[in-house]
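>> Question from a student workshop board

For tomorrow's exercise we were told to take the sequence and the ligand below, predict the bound structure, and bring the output to class. My setup keeps failing. Could a helper post the expected result so I can at least see what it should look like? The ligand is adenosine-5'-diphosphate.
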Amino acid sequence: MDKYLIQPETCVNLDDFTTYYDGEIKKKDGKARLKEHNKTLRDLQELLYAEGKRKVLVILQGIDTSGKDSTIEHVFGDVNPQGTKVVNFKVPSKKELAHDYLWRVHQHTPGSGEIVIFNRSHYEDVLVVRVHDLVPESVWGKRYEHINAFEKLLADEGTTIMKFFLNVSKKEQAERFLARLDRPQKRWKFNPDDLEERKHWDHYKAAYEDMLSRTSTPWAPWYVIPCDRKWYRNLVIASIIEDTIKNLEMQYPAEVENIDSYRDRLETMIAEG
Ligand code: ADP
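>> Workshop helper replied:
Here is what the output should look like for this input. Compare the format with yours to find the bug.
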């Protein structure tokens, strides 16, 4: 899975990255493998929660239709909601805008024993904000450094960070918009503004390339995931998260002493009714 990892200081050109997986894994096998990852992730999250020491932050970024919501559903669908949290970052409120852009983010970072998934994130402040000139370049241009320092702070204080860029092609995006119109249950997801946003495709591409080039660090790496095939996207992301959490080498807390004496007491209680 390291082939999807962006090494620090790489100058990223998204034209070099495929959005469509056409390797050897077949869809049916990929889906079966995902089920295995789901089970393992459920066990790992339980261990993480029981141990209560590590913190895990997963960041998902990608254009509309890239599948951020669906990834969360399919990768984390089996995980116990206790100890897991999804945070969606929308257009900032008046109060949020009155503070620095990391203020609203920091309060949602994971505590000990928690997994937090960011559906969009502080990276919007170098993406949509840049594309739409919401602040001048003299302001957003400094944010890459802030973000690296902020994520270093989180990592130094015990947070494991994984960042996924969900890479879809322009054609696939149009097809997914159309699919939303074609399926009555999905129509609510269609927003005509999304088509306006699509006109900025090249500008977004440049902003994503800068983000990936400047903020993939040893303590908070970016992975660029080919997302035109949804099952493959889910498989790769689940597999990277599983490997990363496994590497934390977590342990269940120490057992209570004298287990046998407690067992005896409980068996007596049951016998006595
Ligand atoms: P989603 O597309 O994530 O399902 P929405 O349709 O509500 O949810 O979109 C959220 C919107 O909020 C996106 O257009 C995104 O660019 C915008 N947004 C998020 N963070 C910021 C920010 N810091 N500044 C401006 N807009 C933002």
